Amino acid sequence: MALDRATVAHIATLARIRLPEAELEPLAAELSQILNWVEQLSEVDTSGVAPMASVAASGLPMREDQVTDGDCRDAILDNAPRTARGFFAVPKVIE
Amino acid sequence: MSDWPAALTALSLAEARDGLARREFSARELTENYIAVVEVVRPLNAFITETPDQALAMAKAADERLARAEGRPLDGIPIAVKDLFCTKGVLTTAGSHILDGFHPPYESTVTEKLWQAGAVMLGKANLDEFAMGSSSTTSYYGPVENPWRRRPNGRAGDNRPVVAGGSSGGSAAAVAAHAAMAATGTDTGGSIRQPASFCGIVGLKPTYGRCSRWGVVAYASSLDHPGPMTRTVRDAAIMLRAMAGHDLKDSTSAPLPVPDYEAGLTGEIRGMRIGVPREYRVEQMPGEIEALWQQGVDWLREAGADPVEISLPHTKYALPAYYIIAPAEASSNLARYDGVRFGLRVGAASLDEMYELTRAAGFGAEVRRRVLIGTFVLSAGYYDAYYLKAQRVRALVARDFAKAFEEVDAILVPTAPSAAFAIGDNTDDSIAMYLNDVFTVPANLAGLPAISVPAGLSADGLPLGLQIIGRAFDEEGILRVAQVLESAAEFRHLPAFIAGKT
Predict the structure, then answer these.
(1) CATH number reported for the structural domain that contains residue B23 in this entry
(2) Chain A: residue whose CA lies nearest to B387
(3) pLDDT above 70: percentage of residues in chain B
(4) How far is CA B415 from the centre of its chain?
(5) Deepest of A53, B83, B310, B498, by most Cβ within 10 A of its Cβ?
(6) How confident is the model at residue B4, as a pLDDT?
(7) Chain B touched by A24 (CB under 8 Å)
(8) Widest CA span in chain A
(9) How many domains does chain B have?
């Protein structure tokens, strides 16, 4: 399948990656080439085959609901680009 | 460099361990030698961060334990850590600009186990950005160079440096150049085995669930496998034992006991049935790879194994399935890099704009490409046709292996379809780059253990590896076969750029 500029711009918005106008066309060509190549999967008869999400044993293991970690707010905030009064700080969201 | 201390760095991990236990040299001496080599090999760009002070402190603690005869399995062994493993308080980058300045407040399970076993951290090894690549050229910190060079009389006039493979290229280059005794790697589509093949070392991708993924920067969670990279098969066995084990912090970690892999290296493979899958004879495979593969079959037969031709009919579709599943998982995993809690932030007036500008500035071209592909194949209207289709094909690839393992004990194939290529080659064509992983990706889709062993040289004088794939959780079996191959191949060649030789 060939992606056009508009589709690339749309998926870039979904992925929250700003793309300059000039890069839409070349990226559309690159991504289309990759998609055309993966489409060879349509040759494979997969009727009746269940999708495989993981090779790990199915079903997540259960464990006791215990506190094993925590009380390290400052250590975590140390990595943040901006903090305020013990919180992560971001541009204003609500007027 | 007349008094170059190459003798200690030339030892294998097993030899160094035994020398340390006998107090023939100290962990401090060994570590100092390695720190010196790490500095000498800086032109290879194998390390993003060097941690000499930490290394010396860890060596001191190891020496104290050794002096009290309380030595641990890896006491005083200097290793490199792929910069995808979070290390407490030590810069962790994943080779990406977007993790600028990230100092994890926690330690990955695998590295924690290695430190508990006494290993010494020399530094954080360079890699493809977020482990996405087969050449270690997409790192924000620049490409890794392979310590090997083409023979001057090889391909006419082409003396360009070659890639170390990827994504664990820094780990592979460091081990090959004797700048680390061993290293950790991760393998999502071949990222341990292919660089091991390109750099002439041993690389082991364990079974999915054998080594915890906790604290490893996630690329494609259902395909990511941490594992060891070493100079010998015995060293891989020793490293794996220290790295493996059940971890409550990783819900996909296998609750199984960890065997003594080294004790399993009996050299005995008589009667083992070795599968040789006809579908791996791909078009345009270089004659020298085909010849080496045949040589490997002959070596195993001479050792008493029984090679049998088998069929893995969906092999051809593993790679395209991988290039849907891995980007899909990546697009989800990499959503966390938003400039809020860690790493890079590009300031903006609105939150959405901050996300978009931060991710545009922070992700390199290949990461961006995979996130976009992944976003597309997961989007409404395309999810069934691409993502679910790929997962169904994945099930068929896994089924092929399950059937094959009803009649064979292990499978022998080449590791990669070529030797290392020049830095800069294959960069304009994504698919040409992806084809590097054609022989390694199937074991990731099926979660099976696989190991690459250096087995010969290309006409240009570059290393080539052979790969053994085994049954789930039968690392003992593939290590045993790998050691037989290693003994038969007698690979004693050394790279051009190495401690004591430069």
Answers:
(1) 3.90.1300.10
(2) A51
(3) 97
(4) 12
(5) B83
(6) 43
(7) no
(8) 58
(9) 1
